[in-house]
Records
---
Amino acid sequence: MKIRHRYLYIIGLLGSLTFAAIAAPSVSDDEHHDDVMTAVEKGLIKPYSALQHKVSQQLSARIIKVELNEDNGEWIYELKLIDNENNIIKVEYQAQSLQMLQIKGRHLENVIKAPK
């Protein structure tokens, strides 16, 4: 009987710790948000609306996912797009200048617009 109570106690404790870990707010998300806001104020990141405009000028595809990451002090927009043929394209833009750094995907000749 004592062994059964120990197992129930351990299972209850593990369940409580798991719930606490899931329910607790993520400190890293808050810190990342603060870092992004500071970078925007310093002019290190162009707004998302400018990025959307740049993508629409350069590519024939819709944005379906956006991530903003810092890599060695440089902010990078990482995008996932989908074209009219349902091909997935991955693109990276430097967040301050909105210069395209990298593009990957199939049938890119149908996605990249000719410069005007």
---
Amino acid sequence: MNRREFLGKLLPKQNSSLGNSRVSKPESFDSENSPTEEQKLQINTATCLAWNDVVCSSCADVCHARAIEFLGLFRPVINEKCDNCNECISSCFKGAINVC
């Protein structure tokens, strides 16, 4: 059983009348200050839901490069596949992904 199947059984079904809407970027997100190739994205473990034992994979779900890996069910880390697309930043409910 993969992560999506497992989460699908735990989480309630989404209302299909909501359509296929995307999550908007947090107000604090500034596209002019997006990371360059030298800069890296980092997950703040103090504010990340998954690092605090809450089932959440919103960052990994939007990552087309599959650059976010989970150590078990929790504890996501950003690996070297990250291409700085910033989709994970805008998808994080807690704003736990930062440019460092």
---
Amino acid sequence: MRTIQINGVALAFVSVLALSAPAFAATTRTFYLQTVQWVSKKNPDQKKAVAKFGEVYGFAPNTLVVRQDDHVVIDIRNLESGGDDGHTFTLKAYGINKSLPPLSSVKISFTADKVGIFQFSCEFHKPWMSGELVVLPAK
């Protein structure tokens, strides 16, 4: 009889813990990205690299981590000023393809409703100008 009582107390304790544990609540996650020029024809020290590979661009940061159902806001700046320095921010899994003209700022927002790892990129400079959106399951 005593063993059942202890198990009953333990079960009641675990039930109280489960009921009092905070539930996951989706939140707004804001990220600030900028375009970067890793290899540039404007830098004389990179002349050989540009001749062999062309100019190389990227996003910084290039990994964004959120939870499922979070509201995601991405504020992106294209810091380059040349006439041929336009980019895009393309996240196909979420139907996003925004133009980033030189010296511009674009704000993108969406709900991360799919779990997984999704690539984003610039349509003009992929695969090098790319990154990942990591959507973890809601707790």
